[in-house]
Amino acid sequence: MTVEIIPVHGLPEVRPGADLSALVAGAAGLRDGDVLVVTHKIVSKSEGRIVALSGVEPSPFARQFAAEHGKDPRQTEVVLRESRRIVKMDRGVLITETHHGFVCANAGVDASNVPGEDEVCLLPLDPDASAARLHAALRDRLGITVPVVVSDSFGRPWREGITNVALGVAGMRPLADYRGQTDPHGYPLEASILAVADELASAAELVVGKTSAVPLAIVRNYGYEPGGGSGAELVMSPDKDLFR
Amino acid sequence: MTVEIIPVHGLPEVRPGADLSALVAGAAGLRDGDVLVVTHKIVSKSEGRIVALSGVEPSPFARQFAAEHGKDPRQTEVVLRESRRIVKMDRGVLITETHHGFVCANAGVDASNVPGEDEVCLLPLDPDASAARLHAALRDRLGITVPVVVSDSFGRPWREGITNVALGVAGMRPLADYRGQTDPHGYPLEASILAVADELASAAELVVGKTSAVPLAIVRNYGYEPGGGSGAELVMSPDKDLFR
């Protein structure tokens, strides 16, 4: 079946405390069985995950790195506070592991698409909880089941460019596990666990873009696997990770 | 605009020497401006990139690794021959850099979806050339411009599951560069080069799947940036790569 990726226009600027489900329900023609992909930024904004840099006192470590690489030391300080581990710190790039376990540049702290000149946006505190809240609120409000993916753009080793991935997931399985199944020739599919929530996030990015002010997309007709599921399942556990 | 991801059914088993453009033109209702995403396997098959393991003599190094981890030493030998560098060799997992520069498990050598019991499939020798040939042949045959993405599923550090990425690209820019543009609030988008060809490959995977014998998908209404472009541009150059 043809899968449709539908951009959602007309969402107002999201302010701290905004009821995201009301905004989404008003702007999007959601149907039962759609998957909703929401860029994390509007989730973070609604949750007040915005920091005014004027109130941040940078540590000596943040000052030193920022001075060396022409960065704002207060923003570097926020990145460090959002991190539990520095993965790479080289050539002015700061790749850290966030408190959630995501490995990304600048702990996901970002100044784009934030209204205040002096403000930066953090990742949601618990993107799975954010996704679950929106999933439940859309069910209450509209009486339909809509899995929710909260996304962000991450870089990755070895490949150029960033792609959208799923930080939070609710209402669907984020991984499609083909192990135990066979291909059309009867060969067992061993290494085939697909990160479909990440693929949904990437597909949504094709209509969302960076400058178009479209912070959400509907994926229609995708045969998702219902059930409990989380973005945390997409974070590789340290004992399995060869690149730790 | 709504982007459509359309699965293409009815492609026959592809044999070495097959004219892929004829098969694709016959099976897919392609239109001018569509993007065609083709899983590398049918490209590799049409190009004869299939190896019969019965003819492979494993090296002592391949024998040793295979014995230790319960693998077929002949298949390990093929993986080593397709590699120019071993990136990680740990817990039975062999992640290598292929001669193209792709970093992936087993150099992309795979026994699934191959008809012969004793056969494995390699990546295309030059996926960009494969994409360019198909792109040109579809123009000749149908008189339409259809960018082509040749895809495969790769794992990645830090995250569970595999996602589809673009190995070869023709007829479009694989990266969307937002640098120099600003967000709706006027903030410059610095770190925003999106790997849209990878996102197209991931989007296509949502309808392709692993067991459904759908080796290609059409992406319709995606506003790609026309022009010369290659999958090679998605391979990070060693001097920029922090994870080398």
Report on the structure:
With 244 residues, the first copy, chain A, is of the alpha+beta class. Chain A has two domains: 1-48 and 123-235, CofE-like (60s Ribosomal Protein L30, Chain: A, 2-Layer Sandwich); 50-122, CofE-like fold (Alpha-Beta Complex). Helix content of chain A is 26%, strand content 26%. Chain A is built from six helices and twelve strands. Chain A has helices at 20-27, 40-46, 60-69, 73-81, 127-142, 196-208, and strands at 3-8, 35-39, 50-52, 83-90, 93-98, 103-105, 119-121, 148-156, 159-170, 176-177, 193-194, 216-220. In chain A, the strands form four sheets. The first copy, chain A, has a five-stranded mixed sheet. In chain A, strands 4-5-6 form a three-stranded antiparallel sheet. In chain A, strand 4 and strand 5 (93-98) form a beta hairpin. In chain A, helix 1 (20-27) crosses helix 5 and helix 3 packs across helix 4 (73-81). The longest helix of chain A has 16 residues, at 127-142. Chain A starts with a strand and ends in a 24-residue tail after the last strand. At the A-B interface, strand 1, strand 8, strand 9, strand 11 and helix 6 of A face strand 1, strand 8, strand 9, strand 11 and helix 6 of B. Strand 1 of chain A pairs antiparallel with strand 1 (3-8) of chain B.
